[in-house]
């Protein structure tokens, strides 16, 4: 009965995969063209290609490839830099963020997360995710628990992915069809869990591929009070695609895949990318360069015009060669003018290159900073980049960064990799705050508004001193700390600030009392001789 249920479930899963494959069919040819011209190492979407074969046969100009790499590197540096902090944690309950003990614990948790990320393979895998995102408009990053590295990241090829959205427009269902060697399949799932066919393949040819499918989707019915894998919010199932044999069943507390889209139409599931927008210009440019190279070759080594009865032997084209022709012949060897020197074609090529660069925002991303630039100018340059990529930032925060950070936090929390939390934090939810260069640039405009506002209030106060009374200095400072993203360990609590203020006031009072005493003593010293003189004068008169 159990085997019958598994076969029924496998049939249902294969049927669901078939429907998603039909919906994705139109996208595949589009992705294949993008890969052929701009990311050839992944140009195996609609075709099977041998590993290690040449894949640059259609590429005659590298403008699009370089522009794509620049945009991917820029996003990587702006959002998830390897040298700067790019996120921090805070509590959704605002009052808890003011508690010193809670802030210190959250700072320790953040440090532990950065350490785990730095020790993992995050940087290389997230770069591949950005690369796929800009190329295909849709990318996928799998986040798994790992016994050795705590967390393991895996960027998945767009070829493997079949996705579906929920009512909120978020990807919550994924079918991933992929291949693994029989050896790797047995190592991951165990020999007793794979089908008899796979067992035989493993025994005879361990390095032969096995066609697998991994399905993760929301679980319809489960008990959140139970901690077993069968009662988690997301169900997980691995099965062999050909036989439908279910290898493994389980669950996840969070969706283990993050699937960001670069830009997305409201009636589409898969995203669209700058590479898709530039594809027309890229194909035209490559064709123009190909034709131009052929024309240049003909110009350097042109076809020859030779009279049919003038030459006594085949024409020798090597340097220093001698050709013999009949005496008295009017014709000699002449090159055929093909009109290859065409400046109009060169201008059109340059126009296509500029259009491609504009699509990938190359000019704005290459804006460099020099030593003579002021802090304001640096902020303005970053704001310019933010305005260009701002529309994409919100989607990447909600579809990539937010679920990824929450997933990492929960994995480490379940494995007791954080210090013990204070009692005040029981049942408190944690939220993510972004402090990447991109996020800080986004806040730069708010900071400039505050600075300009203070300058304006300062000017007004010269005419109306009451203007400064409307500004709350402590509130202003707290807002600046939030905008600048300063670590909690650098900031004193309200109680510490109050204590320092009281100590300063007491010190000032003591100093004022000492000054008063000194003044009184000085006055007494100055008055004493005068009093003595008056007393002496009175005695003399008597």
The description of the largest β-sheet is:
5 strands, antiparallel
The tally of strands reads 12
Rg for CA atoms: 37 Å
Low-confidence stretches: none
Relative strand content: 5-15%
Mean pLDDT: 84
Quaternary structure of the protein? single chain
Shape: flat
Number of helices: 13
Polypeptide structure, described:
With 542 residues, the protein is of the alpha+beta class. The protein has a domain at 498-542. The chain has helices spanning 2-38, 63-79, 100-119, 122-136, 182-189, 196-204, 274-300, 343-359, 362-365, 375-414, 437-461, 473-484, 494-541, and strands at residues 87-91, 140-146, 150-156, 161-165, 171-181, 209-218, 234-240, 246-252, 257-258, 304-305, 334-335, 430-434. The protein has a five-stranded antiparallel sheet with strand order 4-5-6-7-8. A three-stranded antiparallel sheet has the order 3-2-9, with helices on one face. A two-stranded antiparallel ribbon has the order 1-12. α1 (2-38) packs across α7 and α2 crosses α4 (122-136). The chain is flat, with a radius of gyration of 37 Å. The mean pLDDT is 84.
Descriptors for this entry?
542 residues, alpha+beta
